[in-house]
Amino acid sequence: MPPNIFGMAFGLTGLAEVWSFAERYGISTPWITDALLILAAAVWLLACLLYFSRPRDVRADVLDNVGAPFISLALIVPMLLAALGLEPRAHDAAVVVVDVFLVLTLLYGGWLTGQWIYGALDAPK
Question: Mean pLDDT across the stretch 18-28?
Answer without folding.
Answer: 93
